[in-house]
Amino acid sequence: MFKKILIANRGEIALRIMRACHELGIKTVAIYSTADEFSLHVKFADEAVCIGPPASSESYLNIPRIIAAGEITNSDAIHPGYGFLSESAEFSKICSENGFSFIGPGPEMIKSMGDKATAKNTMKSAGVPVIPGGEGILSGPDEAKKIAEKMGYPIMLKATAGGGGRGMRFVTKKEEVNDLYEVAYQEALNGFGNGDLYIEKFIEEPRHIEIQILADKAGNVIQFGERDCSIQRRHQKLIEESPSPAVDDKLRLKMGKAAIAGAKSINYVGVGTIEFLLDKNQNFYFMEMNTRIQVEHPVTEMVTGVDLIKQQIRVHSGEDCPSYNSDYKLRGHSIECRINAEDPEKNFRPSPGKINNFHMPGGKGVRVDSHAYSGYEIPTHYDSMIGKLIVHAKNRKRAINRMQRALEETIIEGVKTTIPYHQKIMEDKNFNSGKFDTSFLESFSFESKKNKG
After folding, report:
1. pLDDT for residue 108 is more than 50
2. Active site residue: 252, 292, 367, 396, which one?
3. What's the predicted TM-score (pTM) here?
4. Which of 11, 354, 392, 405 could bridge across to 365 with cysteines, CB 3.0–4.6 Å?
């Protein structure tokens, strides 16, 4: 087992990893920019090293400075969390070359799964259902038109190095291809340094369903059921839950087996998520694989009782998956709301600043993952998420009721937050019925009755 882990991240995920490390008896090292000097992950680490000014490029994305911090603190492993360098093949490679265990996949694995066109072909070879589309990278808009004519419109143009909806365009007819191809190409090039695009058939009324897997170095792979991440705004997840109201036991087993087959086909090690689109006829298709811990991992922890971060650390230290022959039953229902410092009444404009009053809810079945506190200054330089509110209850109806109660108890003053928006969703009849897809928020009407921050 590792003796000291440097956490190459910030905010709530850094604090979450730190808690798991301390419970395992592992010392922790926090890195921080000058903007994060007073963040809780800095306060609760055994050691902390300032690695630069606020800009991510000079701090949390600066590999030489992170490696130097690991060397001067005698760390033996580096945990990247999510975001920043968590899916950087270069970072994984450099960590290994400098004697650090990277708590994530090796560089070749990250590279193969990070390129979505390659990942799709890999999963197809493993027998995992994939979305109909082209065989690889498009040569240009003319090739896109030829493939689209065979498949039929609508289609999606997607950046092979993309994420978060960038470099992605919905195309309904031939006349739109040229313009939208150029827009997607430029957006991907600017956002990822890679403008390569691929084409897929558009899945109508899709749900975004992902399967959590854990794999060890001995080749064992287990899955922990699904998460429904269909409540999204501009391809950014806002609410996640487990289990999905659209998935029954038979489908869950089928999707779980497909996820395991995909992970085994690439000799995967660590935690990972196989993401699928589920259509209205219960057909599912591979979309992508995330080779890291995800923001929404707590809902899986709540319904399985498994600490995914601890298991991630254990398998990378050489331990086997826990009881890998066991069938983990999902117990009850869990929902997560991402609390962002944004103003939903002004098109979700970021709302950085000082939190004057901060009170988080408690009680049975309520969990809060946050690095914020009263007096905390939210930086302007990073993601706007300041915490996650997670609830667990016997069934979905009770979980929704519990989330409504927890949101009502949450007080964040001094900045605007998405709390009123979440409250409105919890009251929505379509959300409560469980009959929704990824387009849910496109027709959702928000009018704040009571703005709590």
Report:
1. yes
2. 292
3. 0.89
4. 392
